[in-house]
Amino acid sequence: MTQEQFAEIVGVQWKTVVNFEAGRNLANSENMQNICNKLNISPYELFLTSNEEKCDIKNQINCELEKLNTKELKRILKIIKALNND
Fold first, then answer.
1. d(CA 44, CA 21)
2. CA distances from 37 to 33, 40, 60, 72, 80 (A)
3. How high is the mean pLDDT of the chain?
4. What is d(CA 39, CA 46) in angstroms, rounded to the nearest whole number?
5. Are 13 and 31 contacting, i.e. CB atoms less than 8 angstroms apart?
6. Is pTM, for the whole model, over 0.90?
7. Whole-angstrom distance between the N-terminal and C-terminal Cα of the chain?
8. What average pLDDT score do residues 45-66 get?
9. What b/e readout covers 9-23, taking b as 16+ CB neighbours within 10 angstroms?
């Protein structure tokens, strides 16, 4: 998605998006809410770094794995190994 497309979706000027990305300006609460609504994300997700997001995903996976029995875990492990070989 280009900056222009993002600006149009969110309802701000293109220069506003440039300033957000450059760190010269921060989005006000209305803009942040609009961004979250348009992208279908929570405000928390706006501030995740890629490492934090990766950890969050791993935590979610671990929580789901805790619910499985040994047989189900072995099946999941086979799937992960198969996907990792691609």
1. 17
2. 6, 5, 23, 36, 33
3. 85
4. 10
5. no
6. no
7. 27
8. 78
9. ebebeeebbeebeee
